[in-house]
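Q: what does this look like with 2'-O-acetyl adenosine-5-diphosphoribose bound?
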Amino acid sequence: MHPPAETDDLSADLRRAAQALCRADRVAVLTGASVSAESGVPTFRGADGLWEGYSIEEVATPTAFRRDPELVWRFYNLRRANVRKVQPNAGHRALVALEDRWGERFTLVTQNVDGLHRKAGSRHVLELHGNLGRVRCTRCHVITDRAGEDLPDLPNCEACGHLLRPDIVWFHEMLPAGVWEEAASETARCQCFLVVGTSAVVYPAAGLIDLARASGAAVIEVNLETTDACAVGAIPLLGPSGVVLPRLVKQLEMTESNS
Ligand code: OAD
């Protein structure tokens, strides 16, 4: 019996990816919604990408919040409640195993706002799009962690009484400056850049892939399908991240013990 050709391709690509990782002194990773999809957090695009007839882009903008803050808060309160119930999966844990190998020379940049990477045990996490657990005052801008709480649909700041908003980066907003600069600098100095479970269409996050490539890093993509951003020159690891990432860690151990 021969394994299907797809399995052969994945095995060969896993070996190439492990070799690229072995050669890297510094490693950076960019993750997207699908790493958490396997934990039960809906992704943005595709079948789950609508909420009460609104596209996520329509609910997640400053204009939407000005127009109807209660609607936006209802959306985020549902997401907050869902995230409290879910647990990290094998993909999150495999990324912790990678960080254990590279230590401070490993950076995990995520577009996810669910906090599952930290919950899994990742330490050097740069959250480009904020965090669902945190809230920010629209007037005094104080940020507080209210992750464990149910909030009303129009929550107010405990310090000044004004309306709170989720501490999330919405469409048409800038990324948090310090976080973005660190993500760009770690990307520019890594030798291996892993892109996991993102459609890589939302900028500036997706621009990190070009930056890594321009800086000479090997790019590895873990996805169900190859994205346009990684179509040229990346090592494709096609399959669910919860399956592929643990296999990559195993392959890395084998490659290291053979060298
Ligand atoms: P998307 O929902 O756009 O993309 C998910 C990607 O993961 C797609 O390319 C799928 O093919 C792939 N995929 C699906 N299941 C997978 C699995 N089990 N394993 C691996 N890959 C899988 O999510 P993001 O790219 O994260 O921004 O979206 C980027 C940003 O757009 C989000 O951070 C958010 C959103 O609107 C803001 O909120 C600012």
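DSSP finds ten helices and eleven strands in the chain. The pocket of 2'-O-acetyl adenosine-5-diphosphoribose is lined by residues 32-34, 37-38, 43-45, 56, 60, 111, 129, 169, 171, 197-199, 202, 222-225, 227, 240-241 (CB under 6 Å).
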